[in-house]
Amino acid sequence: MVQNKRIIYIDILRILSIVAVIILHYTAGVLLSTNDFNTSSWWISNGFNSISRFAVPVFFMISGAMILRTKITSYREFYIKRVLPLVIPLLTWSLIYGLYNQYYSMRSQMNAYEFVIDFGYRLLTDGNYIHLWFLYAIIAIYITVPLISKFIKSCSERDLRYYLLLWFIVSIAYRFISDVVFRTTDQYINIPIMNIPFFMGFLGYFILGYYLFHYELPLKVKNKLYNLGIISFFLAPIATYFVSLRSGVLDEMFYGNYSITTFFMAVGLFIFFKENETRISDKVNHKIQKLISSISRASFSIYLIHLLVEMMLSGRTELEATFLETTLSLIVNIGIIFAISYITVKVLNLSKTATYILFGGRG
User: Fold this and answer.
1) How far apart are CA 279 and CA 182, in angstroms?
2) Within the chain, how many helices (H) and strands (E) appear?
3) CB distance 254 to 50 below 8 Å
4) How far apart are CA 141 and CA 137, in angstroms?
5) At 74, phi and psi to the nearest 5?
6) Phi, psi of 284 (to 5 degrees)
7) pTM to 2 decimal places
8) What is the reported pLDDT for 296?
9) Which among 103, 213, 265, 288 could bridge 54 via Cys, Cβ 3.0 to 4.6 Å?
């Protein structure tokens, strides 16, 4: 373990995930603005976007690994320490993005009363800005944690494997089969017995993170998951090209958080860094570990602020750009967005009040 008692592979996964989120949002501009799937700009954007899809599942897995290992002695204490620090930045950043959208992007003439009514409705319905959905989802899960943690701690490893198997069948495999059937027959399939609420949604990734953090998988299973993860990184962009070509518009079948390729990318990546934690700790000096820790702690705050930074920069890859121009533009712009976001977070962290109001005390 590192000297500051942080878990270095969790920190690295957080950093990779927040960089991947920035890539997802930056490349969306090209992917949604053209249906010409044979340009260099589309292919590069599709490639980077596809291999970054692990980000959201890994964030949920990290949250599950960290929060479900803690002992909860009081509902009130848990809500104050864990839920409130998520609710406050949700309110703050919903307001910031709401004001930016209405009065800067849309040049709205809304008066204060109209804005408050509109903002309140958007706040309730997750309509203020695209990336804030994550806060709604993680708050919803955190609300269940005092009960879920008791359930988890009473389960044996075999019980958890059974839960995760059912969750995989319902949330990943069934969805994949449904998508394939729809794209080949234009018919939706609905098997009522597969609609099992406790085995659907991000809660599965949450519990999966806890399981992978606490238990060792057999070598054969790890190797299979590694291989499926590597295959998925290569398969996702190619599969996206072919399904989009068939649809005539961008088809996000392999972009979804529950797509089969996304699942194996996230699991493979999590296991890889867990297995190599000792090797990483031995090779990385203390200063680099401190930097990794600092960026990791800021990842949630970077998530909140990065789209505001991206909008202010307004740099986009041209659709007619060459392979090299697109690649350089993407790397440079993502690097700039990440750097400005991180530095801004650290400057704001100099004020405890700003840190609490903007980031729930994180950073």
Assistant:
1) 45
2) 16, 0
3) yes
4) 6
5) -150, 130
6) -100, 125
7) 0.94
8) 97
9) 265
Residue pair 142/86 in contact (Cβ under 8 Å)? The answer is yes
> What is the C-alpha to C-alpha distance for residues 264 and 259, in angstroms, rounded to an integer?
9
Q: List the structure tokens of 174.
A: 């069934």
DSSP state letter for 128: S
With tokens 């309509």, the residue in question is 127
Cα(363)–Cα(351) distance, integer angstroms: 11
Q: Which residues contact 332 (CB under 8 A, 6 or more apart)?
A: none
Tokens of 298: 């800021």
Cβ–Cβ < 8 Å for 97, 129: yes
Alpha carbons 255 and 57: distance in angstroms, whole number:
12
Of 295, 292, 234, 232, the C-alpha closest to 266 is 232
* Residue appearing with tokens 């519990």: 207
Mean pLDDT value across residues 137-147: 96
Question: Cα separations (Å) of 98 from 91, 110, 304?
Answer: 10, 12, 13
Q: Rg of the chain over CA atoms, in angstroms?
A: 21
- Token pair 């998988």 is found at 217
- Sequence-distant (6+) residues with CB within 8 A of 173 are 260
Contact criterion met (CB below 8 Å) for 60 and 74: no
- Classify 361 in phi/psi space as left (phi over 0), alpha (psi -120 to 50) or beta: left
- % pLDDT > 70, the chain: 98
